[in-house]
Every structure is written in C-alpha cells, then in structure tokens.
Amino acid sequence: MKVPKALLAGFVISFIGSVPLGYLNLVGFSIYTQIGITDLLAFIAGVVLIEALVISGTFYFAAVLSKQQRLQFFLKLFSNLFLVAIGCSLLFSSVETQTTIANPFESYGSFQRGVLLSSLNFFQLPFWVAWNIYVVSSKFADARRDRFSCYLGGTLLGTTVGMLTFIFCLSYLNSASFTGTFSLKQVLGAAFLLLGVVQLSILLFKRIIVSK
Description:
The protein has about 210 residues and is mainly α. About 75% of the residues lie in helices and about 0% in strands.
C-alpha cells in the first residue's frame, strides 16, 4: 500500500500546488486561447520537466533534514508558516485579467517557453522543500527507487491535471463572462490559510503540552 500512497500523496500535493503557480497558469491560458491545445501540452511538458528536477533535488535534501530529530519542530513550523504565506498570497493577490501575459519569450516554442519560465519560477523551491519535508517525515514516501518513482510520477501527473483543470475552467468562465463574488484563487487561498493555521495551532499546542 505504500507505493500507491506515495503516488496519491504526490498527485494531491502537486494538484493543489499547481494553482499557486499563477503566472504559469495564465501563460498556459494565453497559449491555449491564442494557439491551441497542442502547444498548451508542449508548454506544460516543459514546465513539468523542470519541476521533476526541482522535486528530485529537494526530496533528497528533505530526506537528509528529516533525520535530524532536533530540527523536526522547526521544519514543521516552517512548513505550516509557508502554507499560511501561500494562503495569504492567493487570498489577497489582485486578479490578473491580461491575456497578453504570454509575451515573455514569445519567439520561443511552447516547450522551450515552459522550460524557461518554469526555471525562473523560484517560488517552487521553498514550496517543494516544505512539502517534501512533510512527505518524508510523515512516511508517505522515501528515497527507495520504487516509492520515489511513484511519488515523482504522482507529482508530475498532479501538476499536469491541475494546470489543465485551472486553464480549462478559466477558459470556460472567460467565455461565459462569469463574474463571481470569489475567484478560484481566493477560495484556494482561504483553504491554504485555514489548513496552515489549524496545523500550526496543533503543532504549537503539542509543543506546549510536551514542555510542561
């Protein structure tokens, strides 16, 4: 069961994490509406290629850190504070409506553009360090080849499905001239913020109880 658990953990984390990609999603949306689905898939392939390298590097870094018992509290504290930061950034960010956002590296092909823009997305480094620390410390996955391969496959599948879902939903809402009270980014931002606050409260409560 641990291999399917690693696959599922990777998929869920990456799926929900694909929404804070924000800028990349909007570039993908522009490519989809202006060029088509084939170029969108090429763009996403470039994005997940870089993500695979980032996840692999940060996973083994997280595996080393997770063995340091004294750092466990501070690592979990950082992870939860990072969730709160993600929630706040999504919840209070301004709504971007410009479809011309795909202009950077416009002379490059869609795949190359995905590679370049994903490489410049430094946000994914602390994101995956935080989540990989949680995954390793919670024993959802480890450095063994079969489990890590399933975890990595799940993350790449999650990013692909998450980006496609976001882009297709945005395309539908755009074509339907949808105007709602809350945007998808705000709803997910509230969810991240709530999750981070709840887990942070539990962590600090346990710390207080143990120290007594």
